[in-house]
Amino acid sequence: MPRGTDQRPRHEQVAAELREQILSGDLAPGAQLPSTAQLMARFDAANATIQRALRSLKDEGFLNSRVGKGVYVRNQPPLVIDTGAYLPPDGSFSYELLDVETVSPPADVASALGLADGEQTVRRRRILLHDGQPLELSASYYPASIAEGTPLSGPGKIAGGAPKVFANLGLPPRAFVDRVSARPPTREEVEMLDLPVRAPVIRQLRVVLSDDDRPVEASVLIKGAHLYELQFRRLVPEPDQAQP
Fold this sequence. Notes:
CATH architecture of the largest domain: 3-Layer(aba) Sandwich
Order of helices and strands: HHHEEEEHEEHHEHEEE
């Protein structure tokens, strides 16, 4: 039973329906949209409403026009990223290191790392690229008591990455905990990720745990929501271990 009324302008409602069809695959990558007349009939909407809806989806990167041919769904489907991976195995992905600094972390990061008031972290900021295009901004925070004097606090890329450093310190990564939310982007995120107008971002707070659930790293990962799908994988427990 409906619990409320959709108060959005009609063109936003139409755009939302088409966006869902694109994300679900009902409108496949590269597929041509129905004609404007067909969309007007389907949604019982005026031409101006349909054109505003299509413009919104073009601005978000979901659609593109081909002169004299029509409107088409973008050729690239959403990138499916396993949340447990540090970096996708596909060789088309790379990253650039933006900076390495000793900073006071955001409140949620400090809480996730179990830091005392005023305790500092080493922050490594990066941008993830796919075929040279920006996809993700990340900021990884390490307790200064762990990171100082290790490659984590150095200015260059780390051979073998942070997991190798942790292993050498006797703090091997054992588990990840992810918290995922969505929100409008900040100005820096719009500019660094070259986001379309009105595209939201996915904010992923990942905490890396070592033995005895000791937190050793917390990362804030910002992704354009129009480009990504996050994949979570969990083993199904045996019947005798399942919760009642």
